[in-house]
Write a structure and sequence with these properties.
The protein has helices at 11-17, 26-30, 39-54, 65-85, 121-130, 138-148, 179-204; strands at 2-4, 21-22, 89-90, 94-96, 100-102, 106-108, 112-118, 152-158, 168-174. It is built from seven helices and nine strands; from the N terminus they run E-H-E-H-H-H-E-E-E-E-E-H-H-E-E-H. The protein is globular. The chain has a single domain (2-204), classed as Lambda Exonuclease, Chain A.
Length: 205
């Protein structure tokens, strides 16, 4: 593993990610675990294969309005988190593991990472009622634990529309509680990387 001290969404960060399966997409890989990969995973494998061939970001990778909103409000959520827990959050950078990698939203001391989601009110309210992390991001969070080899990840849900005392919801996942899931991810990801190579071979045949 090699850690690169680069800023998310920078040109250097984009180049480091080319052709690599990243934690934000591990949910695609883990869908239908134990069965054949579905169409979303196959589409992702094609994207990565084309990135390897062309050495540039695939045209059909995308961002949407919610993603842009998240990027804009993430610094606010990070500041609130630092003030609430009396910690300094440093740059998450990029953890490069050759065929895959990970970009947590920040590092905390030597043992933790954070994942910030700036969300709309209904999503935040569902997390508040659930009293746990949003399951939509389960495999991204477990991916953080796996790829960074750190002891915990804090899932942070932020919504500015809520009262100050509930704008920030934090749920911690400890590595020792998810060892079985980490192993599942590793096995499934290895199969997915083989799918990427198979897709690459088919294109270049």
């Amino acid at each position: 593993m090699r850690w690169h001290n680069v800023q998310q969404n920078s040109e250097e960060w984009e180049k480091l990610r080319l052709g690599k399966a990243t934690a934000s997409n591990f949910g695609l890989i883990m869908a239908n675990d134990g069965n054949a990969f579905g169409e979303p995973a196959k589409r992702y494998a094609l994207q990565l294969a084309l990135e390897i061939i062309n050495n540039q970001k695939a045209e059909f990778s995308f961002s949407n309005q919610h993603m842009e909103r998240g990027h804009e409000q993430e610094p606010i959520a990070r500041m609130l988190y630092e003030n609430q827990y009396f910690v300094d959050v440093t740059n998450g950078g990029f953890f490069d593991l050759v065929d895959y990698g990970d970009s947590p939203d920040g590092l905390v001391n030597d043992d933790g990472v954070i994942e910030v989601k700036s969300v709309i009110a209904p999503t935040h309210y569902a997390t508040l009622k659930r009293n746990s992390f949003d399951p939509s991001y389960r495999w991204q969070l477990i991916g953080h634990l796996d790829c960074t080899n750190r002891e915990w990840v804090d899932f942070i849900s932020y919504c500015s529309e809520f009262p100050p005392d509930t704008q920030l919801i934090v749920h911690r996942l400890n590595r020792n509680d998810y060892l079985e899931d980490i192993n599942k991810l590793r096995n499934r990801r290895a199969d997915f990387i083989q799918l990427v190579q198979k897709t690459l071979t088919t294109i270049q045949r």
